[in-house]
From TrEMBL, chains A, B:
Keywords: Membrane, Transmembrane, Transmembrane helix. The chain crosses the membrane at residues 42-61, 67-87, 108-127, 169-192, 242-265, 389-407, 419-436, 473-494, 572-599. Residues 634-657 are annotated as: Disordered. GO terms for cellular component: membrane. This is Two pore segment channel 3. GO terms for molecular function: monoatomic ion channel activity. Its main location: membrane. Residues 42-267, 466-600 form the Ion transport domain. It is a multi-pass membrane protein. It is found in: Membrane.
Amino acid sequence: MPGVFQDFALATVFVSDAQYNRNIHFDSSPQAVRLYLLYNHWAFKVLLYFFIMVNLSLAIFEEPAVFLLPLWATMLVELLCLIVFTARLVHYAKVIPPVKFWKDPKNICIIAVLTLTLVDMIIYGSLEAAKIYCVRWSRVLRPLLLVNVTEGRQLRRAFRSIRNALPQIFYVFLLFMFSLLVFSLMALKLLGKRNLKNIEGYPYFTDYLEIVFQLYVLVTTANSPDVMMPAYNAGSLFTIFFILYILINTYIFMSVFLAVVYNSYKKYLKEEIRQLVRAKRYKMARAFDVLQEQKEGCSQPVLTQASWNHIVRQVRPDITDAHRDLLWSVCDDKNQGVIGKVAFVQLADLLNIEVITLKSRPHPLQNLFPTIYLSAPSRLICRLVQHRGFVIAFDLIILVNAVFIGLDEENPLISNSEWGFLALYMLEILLKLYVFEPRSFFSRHIMVTFTNSRVLEIQDLAQNMFRIIINTLIRIGPAILTFGQLIVVVYYVFAIVGMELFKNKVKFFDNSTHPEHAYCGNPLLKGHSFAQLGYCKNNFNNVVSSFILLVELTVVNQCDGFASVTHVSARIFFVLFHIVVVIVIINIFVAFVLEAFFVEYSVDKSQLQTSLEKKIEELELAVAQYVTLTTEPSQDQDIQVRSSRQESRSQQGGQTV
Amino acid sequence: MPGVFQDFALATVFVSDAQYNRNIHFDSSPQAVRLYLLYNHWAFKVLLYFFIMVNLSLAIFEEPAVFLLPLWATMLVELLCLIVFTARLVHYAKVIPPVKFWKDPKNICIIAVLTLTLVDMIIYGSLEAAKIYCVRWSRVLRPLLLVNVTEGRQLRRAFRSIRNALPQIFYVFLLFMFSLLVFSLMALKLLGKRNLKNIEGYPYFTDYLEIVFQLYVLVTTANSPDVMMPAYNAGSLFTIFFILYILINTYIFMSVFLAVVYNSYKKYLKEEIRQLVRAKRYKMARAFDVLQEQKEGCSQPVLTQASWNHIVRQVRPDITDAHRDLLWSVCDDKNQGVIGKVAFVQLADLLNIEVITLKSRPHPLQNLFPTIYLSAPSRLICRLVQHRGFVIAFDLIILVNAVFIGLDEENPLISNSEWGFLALYMLEILLKLYVFEPRSFFSRHIMVTFTNSRVLEIQDLAQNMFRIIINTLIRIGPAILTFGQLIVVVYYVFAIVGMELFKNKVKFFDNSTHPEHAYCGNPLLKGHSFAQLGYCKNNFNNVVSSFILLVELTVVNQCDGFASVTHVSARIFFVLFHIVVVIVIINIFVAFVLEAFFVEYSVDKSQLQTSLEKKIEELELAVAQYVTLTTEPSQDQDIQVRSSRQESRSQQGGQTV
């Protein structure tokens, strides 16, 4: 029955899309489905990301380079990347209907980027051949590919979240600027006429724009207290102005920025989840439509257990028969042997709920090497590690270690002992991994005992708090990957622009006896604090040092050196960077950490009660066996931490989300 | 009828206590009530706070002093303060039953502070007379009076909120310290053996405790990027260590601190509100018990409209008859002429809801000088100011001003024109205040037009956003007073301790030609960056400069100078200050701003519907007249922004809170 086989294939794709929140409206013709399956193959995705990485890393080898390669080499590699991207795009175009393809802005964006890059390469190549100075402007577009490929879903969501917050951020920013300008005017009137000099001997607070910039930097706390000292030295009362300014602009406005970002982040999250749930239901409903049968005695079309089993086996070949039976009994609540559409739709979420069989599940090593793992010495090790004395022994080791740390570092015996201690700790973790089933080990066991035994004897409350915090930290783990990509995209653009603006303005000499070492190879920096503090290596001379400099600018915005070697307007670049990265992106990150903590905290309080858990209780189904229910983070759920939980709740409660 | 008069007096006190959330269990005997009324008199409160201020300001005149006064003078003033505080305490002891008095920890605390201060004064005075060196340690206790006087309710609440957050903060801090220690160990192993030198030529990252301190400071971003530069200069790969550290400790852990503080702040807020509501109900119920009558046909005791009117007139003599009738009709929902206990209990909240009669209320000047205000020239001014042209004219003035700001500052005509512009803006505000009723003017009118006309033409959304932000800023206004007190208490303690530890270690010379000017009068600072950057005035030589220095330390933690002139362990003082002020207090402040913003945002969305508004709609009672309903912030409601709203909701919904 090729028809039935195709039906199952199609239904499997729908269910799998729903499970992983893929939202591609592929053509449902058999060859398109086959192409779509190929499109989703992991090898192609890895290949794509590999070439995106290659494309981005080209900046390392292009002028200004870390390792300079000849132009033809980088051009050739870039051309290869472009070909790969085009092939992937053509593949995608074959999977989905043409109308949908041309309506999607991300495809148009990729095409534009590819075309513009090609044009730029041709122009640059020919001008370079004619020895005419030219800028490789299309390099700024490279990170756009990372955002616009089909797999960049999370990254796009992060950018959408930023875009949604932008109007509100803009209004707060206007108020903030208004306050900044008024304070600057006050500073000018208050201090401009007093002939004060700053530490470098220049007139202090006499130029309006200079004041605006200095007070803006004060918001980042980078020039505190230097910016205040000349006024303070002239009179203590002037500090009232600065304290007022810091209270309003550094503390209140920056908090309002965080509040606005957090608020719009949460609002947006809800909307996204609603859409995801809708898309998921739609996919599941389509899968059901493909597989449905008309049974006697049922007014509605239904799905038999056989078809259901077939689909689940296709989608999750790894789960056990017992687990699958459990899932079926959750779906087929009334034991009718068939399920309707509503019961089927919740399958995608049920599959995402991970059932850990804590006690009964054998250690993976036992599966792999049963004879060795169950041998007498191995059993002895297990008993030893599980013994209370093991924990106490390692607590003592930590104590000794703490004493050793405090002792004289010069003694080689003591300083080398650290390696011994580290080795012991590694041994402890390895032994525990050997003895305890890894998943249960990581899910809750070790984390608590780890911090518990190591720091203090802590009561229940503390353990609880530790678990919440550690779970928060674990929870934000995958999200940091998305934020990492986001940061790479923004940094890359700023790094490329920064390199064009500031390359070789500041030089670093490995050899500190070099005559130009003291002023970073730029006479303009003679006696400048930038050179005096030894910041020469903070430059835009290649993409690596640009990235490191941008990290430093994220933490503290120091840019006077670059304004000195180019033009005062270079500050615009740094202020812009501060607005984009610190005010927007870092605040989103903080908002994300806050939300992850609150979710972890509230879930811990209210006890996640899924229908699966209820079913397990109802059926009294080997309670000892199924102890922990955790939600496996699917590939899309790192930004929206609530999604899977809210989704499963929504599935339970009908239309509550 | 003296009995009835006393009853009314007692009931009035109960209602007024409930309205202002006073929670004093005074004796209900007539003379105790009279004493209690006296105790609550504003003059006594002002006097008390005046003497608290005097007592705190003594630090200005005591060694190390801003203006040195002889010892007998300050001692005498302090003795006077102690007498006033004792008198106030004795008064309080007469008001409440003795058992309650001795059970209250705040009374015990005040007695202890007063006794200890007296003891210290005697010891110090006699030792000083014998020329023996001695420390006035009881000065640290002074701010405790601010916390423990009956009126310091908000401040105590803020401290309780901090105390409640402490256990959770402590656990996060343990994890943070664990991470810090591990990173420090890694840094020592990674960088300690490489013979690197920092910018001052000292060995870099060779001492474990030094590394721990430097990495702790990196969390405050104060020493970024300096702490990283020697490693970065030695090899770019070392930056990975620092970037990882900044990500985990500066960004994630600091966000988790905020999350913990915010979370416990919110949880605590709910509990406080619940208690406040309970206390309020209890007070109102007692007032009802005093006034209740047994009417025919009513199974329950009731209150007549006459008694009710009497009470309301006593408690709020300022409200109009129409307003009082409106309140009565809300209470007496079924028009029975009498009300029961439940209806009476909500009075305290009803009185806190302010009804502004927008259109009908005449300008206060019209009441004071009707003939002048209603004269032809005055009417012309009103018409002119209300005209659209007035707004446009001032928009144009702003534009001209913006152009002038950008012009050459040296030109005296242009630089002096600023004063003209400022005068014009003041004129505009004065004119508007003359024309518009001040309360309606401030409540919403001016704030929107102010920013609206001044910055951009903004659509509805933006106006909305602006209103939310400005309301947030206005809403946190009174709370800043409480936080101000909180900060003063903490700063005062640190300033007193800091002065004992560091006084005269660093000296500032007004005359920059003084030979010791270059190294702040301390040879240990020769060539030190502290002196080079001109920080000499950042010292602990008197209480004012201590406070200013503590503000600077709040923003950026710079303390190397003080460790250099005393001992490396002086850093403990600064790290402690950072933990207390930045990690705890500033985070509570940020949490407060966040919560104020979210409340303002959600209230704006859900539309506050009080029973009063409903009643106004029901009765169609001069809808044009009663337009705005705002909740007047009662003296206790600055920390818990939701209280009055939640309370009125709880009163509506019975036992919902």
